[in-house]
Amino acid sequence: MSRLAALTALLLGVTLLAGRLSLSQPQRTFTASRDHPAIEYSSRPTSDAVAALNRQIQKGEVELELSGTGGYLESVLAALDISIESQVLVFSETSFQPERITKSNPRALYFNDTVAVGWVPGSDLVEVAALDPAQGVVFYALDQKTQEKPQFARDQQCLLCHMSSFTSGVPGLLTMSVLPLSDDPNEYVQGWGVDHRTPIADRWGGWYVTGQQVPARHLGNVPVYHVERSYVREPAAPKLESVAGEFDTTPFLSEHSDVVALMVLNHQVEMTNRIIRLAWEARIAAHDAPAAPGGGLPPRVREAAQELVDYLLFVDEAPLPSKVQGSSAFAREFTAKGPRDSHGRSLRDLDLERRLLRYPCSYMIYTDAFDAIPGAAKAAVYERMWEILSGEENNPAYARLSRGDRQAIVEILRDTKKDLPDYFQPARIG
Fold first, then answer.
1. Buried b / exposed e across 4-27, counting CB within 10 Å, b at 16+?
2. Residues 361-386: tens digit of each pLDDT
3. Spans of all domains in the chain
4. Residue 322: φ, ψ to 5°
């Protein structure tokens, strides 16, 4: 079995021999067809950032330029408002271009809140995943050839990996960590999905990790293929402040694979998937059973709302074992994007000593996709958020949210979230 085929089997949820495979999956996933009449993922028009860019290019409002070894890459990033500082580098063979990816020729990813761009030196494609407010993550590819008006084409082969139990069953995002693998043909990929709940010691296998301060134990910066012994964890990860000297960085736009960017991306992928799953469950329920018994939400919708809120409020976030400081300007740029409340606080303010964010509530609450969650389902999200933030919910699992955390989150949201219900009142927090 080829490594790509083995990875495909892993992502489709195939059970392999014990000891050969380690998985971490959401407990519940979307199970209906992506082409259900309420969704029509394959056929409905999209309104994501890439679809908008396609229209701008056709109208002559935007021009993409080929430049150097990156081709359209730098022009695409500028058009989609994605910073070069967001660059992270992955060298595990976990895309549909595994033959090009090595430790000396990694795949570069660049991202903002709603769009991710992938590029491998030597490839004839730029890959893009864009979060559509209604349709979930839509995948595109752009040919790296001279064109008068280049267009991004939808690429549904990405769904082989990006619509599985690892993405909550919806077209979504995925970051993986893999352990070293020898050349034994009987060995399979050993890896797992990563999000902010994953301990740092289990993150970033197959990724470069750079930073001024990085926890000593993680899985990054070590070879994952053609090693003498498989599944071996190093006692301490090699420390890199940049990738200069690790390989020829000339084709790349940055010499960093910033640890803070990686942590933000790890959070964002699962947050994206949970927003999509709730919206789709709500749309299916409204189509198939417009009048639920008693007028309440169907159990699958309410469960999806509760799971979204737990993740949104970082209830199960893995604590940082030590302080983190990046190696690029990513942290400064990320924090600067706001919005800010009347006291100058933002949900994008970083902590990086105990946890990712200073105020543990996801900045993804400001995305158009969150706003597009159908009304009753979004109301359930806000109701559950208020139960937790007000202190009405007394389950010990929520004790990690201090009264100060909860107060600050409510105050920030009241100043910055336009559709926040009136019952979000700081004075009512217990």
1. bebbbbbbeeeeeeeebbbeeebe
2. 999 999 999 999 999 999 999 999 99
3. 3-202, 266-428
4. -160, 170
